[in-house]
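Treating backbone geometry as a discrete language has practical consequences that deserve illustration. In the encoding step, the backbone of a single protein was reduced to a row of integers, each denoting a local shape. The amino acid sequence and the backbone structure tokens for this protein are reproduced below.
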Amino acid sequence: MKRTHIAIVIFIMLYITGCAPKYDETNPKIAPVTEAVFASGSIEPQDAYMLNSFYDGYLAKSFVTENDVIHTGQVLFRLDNKQPLVQVNQAKNNLDIARQNASGSSPALLQIKAQIDAARAKLQNDSVNLIRYQKLYTTNSVSKQDYDNAKLNYESSLSSYTATVENYHSTQLKVKQDLDNSVAQLQSAEASDQYYELMAVADGRVYQIFKKQGDLVKKGEQVAQLGNKDSLVITLDIDENTIKKIAFGQKVLVELNTQKNTTYEASISKIYPHFDDKTQSYKVEAKFIKQVPGLIAGTQLQANIITATKDKAMLIPHTYLIGNNAVLVDKNGKHDTVRIVTGIVSDEWIEVLQGLSIEDKILKQK
């Protein structure tokens, strides 16, 4: 019986030992640490912009090819502009007519001038008659009815003359307004015609052309990408959780997809102050520290932005962290959960600012 009891006790102890959790253990260490933010991106021309079409039309002529150097105001592409040309020609014809109508030889103004001359002659004649009848009436040589008729004729001629002169000035003002409107319409038509000529807004280089001659181009569509002729930059997409860690001048380690296993150094040169809804990220630019030969716009890349570094830091492995900021510590054989304050976070290590000492033994369940 005693042997049976001993066997049962040994079995229970082995069972309990077998069911107890097992732990890996380590101590914090002092070592240098670097925090980096990963980002993907591409090589793009500095000050890049897209040349868009203002109207629908067919690409009638391309005056440049990719990699051409361009200058401010240079016409790069021309769209089919038959309709605007018709409008310009019509506006020119209207302007010619308006100029003729506003000139001194205008038929309308000459006709009114003739009417003024006739009205002036009649007024002068009726004025002489009125004076004559007025004298005759004072000597009772004519009746009052004759005198009143002469006076009425004069007043009618005066009114007619005044109205004709006012008509002349009114017509003169109208033809001048018509002339001004025709000039404005021509300028508007010519301006609309210019929108069918896509021009460079700054000196630069043609990096990409998206349409070939004969293609239909819709209003707002991109025709070409232009940018600085001498400078290519790195554009990076940063997620909203890490953008607050990015600052000007930070070192960037870049690996181009065309040159695997080769790392180039760059530094953050620009942080755009808005969130891009299309990429769901923030845009950041960086410039290479040293010129990289053979760079091509559009080359894809991966980068690590160095956001923090420390020569001596107390570090623990990522895998020993419980939740966001706690670790399991062995204190004289007893296990206790300790909250810590973290600092720099690298791929494998976490800096501990408060909560642990270098002698503490931390545990991780196997």
Notes: The longest strand covers residues 300-317. The longest helix spans residues 144-194. Confidence is low (pLDDT under 50) at residues 9-17.
